[in-house]
Amino acid sequence: MTPRRLLLLFAVLATTLGLTACGEKSEDVSGSQRPPQERISLLLDYLPNADHAGIYQAQANGSFSKAGLTVDIRTPQDPASVLGLVASGKVDVGITYEPELLLARAQGRDLVAFASLVTRPLTSLISLPKAKIRSAKDLEGKTVGTAGIPYQSAYLETILRKAGVDPKTVKQVNVGFNLNGALLSGKVDATLGAFWNYEGVDLQQRRKKPVIVPVNELGVPTYDELVLVARNETLINRESAIRRLVRAIGEGYQAVRRNPDAGADPLLAANKDLDPGLQREAVSKSVDAFFPADAKKPWGWMETDDWASYAQWMLDQGLLKRQMPLDNVLTTDFLAGEGAGEGRKTPGGQDRPAQKLPGYRGE
């Protein structure tokens, strides 16, 4: 729009409607108010998959462009490097797991979760019918394969103790990420670490009739499986861009929810080596997990009580070595309808009160 037309538009608005001030929670990204294109790099947590469907949808349907953003979606060469690359400023935004973020914060990395991509645990205990594992009590004397991640071993111990099973009676085997392979080959009786919406769906499509139980149904506190994270500095200096990014990604996931089958198309188009049947089914099964349980909450919502409980569990398990204040580990201020920059200095330099996490017995 030319400056002359813009002035004319304001004149008409002032005459007919009166000029109204916009609140800080509003971020107009449409029409004449569309901001100039701004680049943001976004590093996935792993290889592209159904969990990322809304991001690719936002790219394909123009949500990023309408938000004034050019988003560079990247795949990590090493999934373990994601938080390091974000912390060093080599990428703007990353996707990670709630426990990984808490461990990174304990190591002094100034990273903050600002939206949830997957609002509940995907990690599950999975077995096949021949193992006759109908409940956690049936794990006694069995062999369980894990991916070798310390907090997943802690999940297993928590599950066993809650079921009254002595952890010493269960053999753990590190099978890496070949969880389904180990299960199908009979190397293990069950796995803990596979996702119900991926490995679980894969086994179902193979007609193996897997028994799948998410860890939060077995005694592990619930948590957000995947979250968007950035440096605190990024949230301060690029507040508007982050807010627009969240809104655009949220639009992508809303589109996926409206039509899950079509919602998988951009993901598949951008990643030709993916199995279409598996990914479409995984997207369909995952839709509810992309949104908060409370329908009144915006996309990306994170429950602070849940984070506090999970952090306390990590402390109790010795995964966190000391009590850690969580005031600035997460913020919901960049979500639709929420305030901006709570607990941080906004671009205007004003301090806002920090977000407290009730229930956490930390400092």
How would you sum up this structure, described in words?
This is Hydroxymethylpyrimidine ABC transporter substrate-binding component. Keywords: Signal. Residues 1-21 form the signal peptide. The protein is an alpha/beta fold and 363 residues long. The protein has two domains: 27-119 and 225-316, Periplasmic binding protein-like II (D-Maltodextrin-Binding Protein, domain 2), CATH 3.40.190.10; 123-217, Periplasmic binding protein-like II (D-Maltodextrin-Binding Protein, domain 2). The protein is built from 14 helices and ten strands. The chain has helices at 3-16, 53-60, 63-66, 82-87, 98-106, 150-162, 179-185, 199-205, 232-237, 239-258, 260-263, 265-270, 276-286, 304-316; strands at residues 38-43, 69-74, 93-96, 111-118, 123-127, 143-146, 171-174, 190-195, 211-214, 226-231. It has a five-stranded mixed beta sheet with strand order 2-1-3-10-4. β6, α6 (150-162) and β7 form a beta-alpha-beta unit. The longest helix has 20 residues, at 239-258. The radius of gyration is 22 Å and the shape is globular.
